[in-house]
Amino acid sequence: MTTDPVKKICTSSSNILKEIDSKYAGFVQMKSMEGMRQSYRLHSVLQGRTKKSVRGFTETNGAYQALNALLYTVIRNNKQHRRCFLRSLLQLFDEVGKTSLHELIYIADNLATFPYQTIDEPLFIIHNIDLIISVTGSTLLQNFQSLLLPTASNDEEEEESIESVMERLPPDTHALKECIDTSQGIVVLLMLNQHLKESFGITDSKLQEYSPNESSKQYDKSSTRRNVGAFQPRYALEYLDKENSGELPSGYDSHWLCKLYIDFKQLMMSFDVSTTFEESNTSKSLFASSEEPTAPMLEEDSNPKCMSSFEDHLSGPSSQQRIILTIHRVDNKKAENTFADVMRSSRTPVSAFAVSLGSKLSSPGKKKRKSGDAKKLKKRKISVLSGSESDSSYSIGLEDSNCA
């Protein structure tokens, strides 16, 4: 009743809700899901027979507020109750076919416009949306593709078009239609995901670092909402508009069916590309080398490009040169970097050698070696010839042992 358009009823209901929360801790959270769904039914009845979709927010002077903002405000202060409530709302999108698309849009409207105070709140929602999309969305996409007829050459096209998909439609498209109908909820989630990222300036790198189980003060910082306009899941709204106007009969035409599939596939591909790109950048950042970005990195002695780059540094005009050798070793359980700094003088080929083997070893000489470990050692030798004294040479031996 706190969402009632009649101001007197809304104010009275709001006071009662606050009083219940102050007297009976946890009672509002226990009934919050039922209250959200009942509010949708209330506005469906109030809207009557109009063919417009029931939206879950109001607009005042360009600012958008969730209809159930008060309910969320009451639950928000308790982190456990808040997360349980948000997770329950998102589970409605994962329960394929149990909730109508009209109600899912209403729920998404509220999620897009709730009065979030900390950055943890939208991050938690986006994190759970990604989990649902990666599992349910991918499954729906694969189910649709498996129902299509195979191509003549049995090779899938890199970029499917509406015409190419129409050629592969089976005679009975009932199963394909059901698959597309259920995919509309995932489409709403995909667009809600993007809307929240834009509203709170959340990048994919921040999302990769976020963990719901990690208690960090940086996530308790106040959030700042940008004015990016109203949340508009246009694909789902377009689908409902055509359905309400009678343009989508029980077995709607093949062209529209294929268009919905292509739209869904493109949204899923954009989600996969951004996720894969960030995972790649994260893995690369684990192996950041030294402070000098122009220093050569030698991974294999046989690599001619590495050797030529190494020799270029030796042929410089200065009397003293600094060579950075960075050796990366990846273990199944742990990733460590080994850095070797070599100072070479043009006159005296004497090197100052320093090696860092990670957090477990305070110095290179403190590691205890067992007799059986001698077989596991790898030796790399890099011979460096002085430009002025071709007869004199020296070598540097780096030992890489199993750190597991």
From TrEMBL:
<feature type="compositionally biased region" description="Basic residues">
    <location>
        <begin position="365"/>
        <end position="382"/>
    </location>
</feature>
<dbReference type="GO" id="GO:0140588">
    <property type="term" value="P:chromatin looping"/>
</dbReference>
<keyword id="KW-0677">Repeat</keyword>
<dbReference type="GO" id="GO:1990414">
    <property type="term" value="P:replication-born double-strand break repair via sister chromatid exchange"/>
</dbReference>
<dbReference type="GO" id="GO:0061775">
    <property type="term" value="F:cohesin loader activity"/>
</dbReference>
<dbReference type="InterPro" id="IPR033031">
    <property type="entry name" value="Scc2/Nipped-B"/>
</dbReference>
<keyword id="KW-0131">Cell cycle</keyword>
<feature type="region of interest" description="Disordered">
    <location>
        <begin position="282"/>
        <end position="318"/>
    </location>
</feature>
<feature type="domain" description="Sister chromatid cohesion C-terminal">
    <location>
        <begin position="1"/>
        <end position="131"/>
    </location>
</feature>
<dbReference type="GO" id="GO:0034087">
    <property type="term" value="P:establishment of mitotic sister chromatid cohesion"/>
</dbReference>
<keyword id="KW-0539">Nucleus</keyword>
<dbReference type="GO" id="GO:0090694">
    <property type="term" value="C:Scc2-Scc4 cohesin loading complex"/>
</dbReference>
<protein>
    <recommendedName>
        <fullName>Nipped-B protein</fullName>
    </recommendedName>
</protein>
<dbReference type="GO" id="GO:0010468">
    <property type="term" value="P:regulation of gene expression"/>
</dbReference>
<comment type="similarity">
    <text>Belongs to the SCC2/Nipped-B family.</text>
</comment>
<feature type="compositionally biased region" description="Low complexity">
    <location>
        <begin position="383"/>
        <end position="395"/>
    </location>
</feature>
<feature type="compositionally biased region" description="Polar residues">
    <location>
        <begin position="282"/>
        <end position="292"/>
    </location>
</feature>
<dbReference type="GO" id="GO:0003682">
    <property type="term" value="F:chromatin binding"/>
</dbReference>
<dbReference type="Pfam" id="PF12830">
    <property type="entry name" value="Nipped-B_C"/>
</dbReference>
<dbReference type="InterPro" id="IPR024986">
    <property type="entry name" value="Nipped-B_C"/>
</dbReference>
<dbReference type="GO" id="GO:0071169">
    <property type="term" value="P:establishment of protein localization to chromatin"/>
</dbReference>
<feature type="region of interest" description="Disordered">
    <location>
        <begin position="358"/>
        <end position="404"/>
    </location>
</feature>
